[in-house]
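note to self — DONT lose this again. spent like an hour looking for the file last time. sequence + predicted structure for the chain T wanted, 91 res
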Amino acid sequence: MSFPLSTLLFISGSEIIVVFLIFLLLFGAKSIPGLARTMGRTMRQFKDASQDIQREMSNAAGDIKETVKEHRKTLDQMGEDIENSAKDLDT
């Protein structure tokens, strides 16, 4: 689901224009494209890093689930062995 930038920042179109004009006055027309590229690269790197973290967390959770599953099988088998031994003692 995609929202316009102004909706995400809770600002109107006129406020965006004012912010752009302030950037234009502070940095000049020649440096704004470079700033925008740098900001875009930085945002992309941040997004990639957050996706890497999410992927690592997901992989770690999967590994933990697999380990728990293996231990559960072992415990279930041990329980069955104990029950069988108890039955053998009763007979």
